[in-house]
Design goal:
- The complex is a heterodimer of chains A (114) and B (112).
- Chain A is mostly beta strands and 114 residues long.
- Chain A is built from no helices and 11 strands.
- Chain A has strands at residues 4-5, 11-14, 19-25, 32-38, 45-51, 54-58, 61-66, 71-76, 85-92, 103-104, 108-113.
- In chain A, strands 2, 4, 5, 9, 10 and 11 form a 6-stranded mixed sheet that branches. A 5-stranded antiparallel sheet of chain A has the order 1-3-8-7-6, with no helix packed on it.
- In chain A, a hairpin with a 6-residue loop joins strand 4 (32-38) and strand 5 (45-51).
- Chain B has 112 residues and is mainly beta.
- Helices cover 0% and strands 49% of the residues of chain B.
- In chain B, the strands form 2 sheets. In chain B, strands 2, 4, 5, 6, 9, 10 and 11 form a 7-stranded mixed sheet that branches. In chain B, strands 1-3-8-7 form a 4-stranded antiparallel sheet, with no helix packed on it.
- In chain B, 36% of the residues are buried.
- The chains are: A mainly beta (114), B mainly beta (112).
- Chain A binds chain B through residues 4, 6, 8, 34, 36, 41-46, 49, 88, 90, 95-107, and chain B through 4, 6, 31, 33, 35, 40-46, 48, 55-56, 59, 89, 91, 95-106, 108.
Chain lengths: 114, 112
């Protein structure tokens, strides 16, 4: 079992829909959780950075962390074709990754249909 | 542009050749990370610097891989005697202690 599981998709939804992306993990020591967006052949772009359990909202994006279930989610409201990309979850035991770096999921390929 | 920069963006080489990639982090970021990303996978952590000190290198893929950050600013990643399996995107990220990592655009390596 990999440390972080993420469905690679593709996930295809119509423009304007609410998108739900999620990851599960096995390492209970993970405390910091991130979502990155990656366009084809580009570097990952940080979207959300959260600590421990709870919700965080930023514009159309909401990140949720449930440490008891080892489950994290990213919701995108009012999805746009420009949101089409690969979404990577990442996590770490220490803030900012520390000496262990970040552990990533495989990424979910999201397609927003106009 | 004040983001993380990487050079070259794309490198094509023949098997057995040595290659070196450069990363310039965000100014004043004291932490620098290297990752490798293969097709359909998330980035895989390779090594970590705090200032000029390489504090984690056990995750480098083999002894053909080495990295330096001589003055605590830019960093280089070298792969010796490249193999076809080394073909991947090599990503650099930087951060200030305890904060988020910001990634560069990556160097795409193709080994023929």
């Amino acid at each position: 079992q990999k440390e972080v599981e993420q469905d690679p998709g593709p996930l295809s939804v119509p423009e304007g829909a609410i998108v739900s992306l999620n990851c599960t993990y096995s390492n209970s020591a993970f405390q910091y959780f991130m979502w990155y967006r990656q366009y084809s052949r580009k570097g990952p772009e940080l979207l959300m950075y959260t600590y421990s359990s709870g919700n965080k909202e930023d514009g159309r994006f909401t990140a949720q962390v449930d440490k008891s279930s080892k489950y994290i989610s990213l919701f995108i409201r009012d999805s746009q074709p420009s949101d089409s990309a690969t979404y990577l979850c990442a996590m770490s035991e220490s803030s900012g990754g520390g000496a262990d770096g970040l552990t990533f999921g495989k990424g979910t390929h999201l397609i927003i249909q106009p | 542009d004040t983001g993380v920069s990487q050079d070259p963006r794309h490198k094509i080489t023949k098997r057995g050749q040595n290659v070196t990639f450069r990363c310039d982090p965000i100014s004043e970021h004291n932490r620098l990370y290297w990752y490798r990303q293969t097709l359909g996978q998330g980035p895989e952590f390779l090594t970590y610097f705090q200032n000029e000190a390489q504090l984690e290198k056990s995750r480098l893929l083999s002894d053909r891989f080495s990295a330096e950050r001589p003055k605590g600013s830019f960093s280089t990643l070298e792969i010796q005697r490249t193999e076809q399996g080394d073909s991947a995107m090599y990503l650099c990220a930087s951060s200030w202690t305890g904060n988020e990592q910001f990634f560069g655009p990556g160097t795409r390596l193709t080994v023929l």
